[in-house]
Known about the structure:
mainly alpha
Amino acid sequence: MKAKLKENSVLPSSHTDTPIDPNKLKDQITSMLLDRxxxxxxxxxxxxxxxxxxxxxxxxxxxxxxxxESNSELAHARGIQEFLISWNIQPNIPQVQTNVEISxxxxxxxxxxxxxxxxxxxxxxxxxxxxxxxxxxxxxxxKYVEIQNDSVGEYSDLLNVLKLIDPTxxx
Length: 171
């Protein structure tokens, strides 16, 4: 059986010159996505600072790794902005902390794990709210849940490796 379109979904007759208003995301969904946009920019600047710190300390491979991480976070932010724009929402670029004080590589990995885990939890929460009322946004968010889940696993592995290292052993 074919589903019928709602009567009001039919376009107005061609005799009108007035365009219809396109649909937008609900305000609550928009607000939650803007919060995640802020989180992605926070992560971008955290990893950028981490990469700069590592390079300054001579940890060049770690520096490259964290610069790549920062670029990934920027791509995530871009994806959220593009989704909002596609739903006729003008995203405001949030102000976030852009400078992070760092004292060591272990601190970076600890904070990266916390950041990624918290962001995973936030994406799960917004997904739960969307699954009933906004399946399109839910579908969009699943990519971000998967990305965050992978990141949590990656930093969990790094933390487990760090636990194997004896910091008192100076060789």
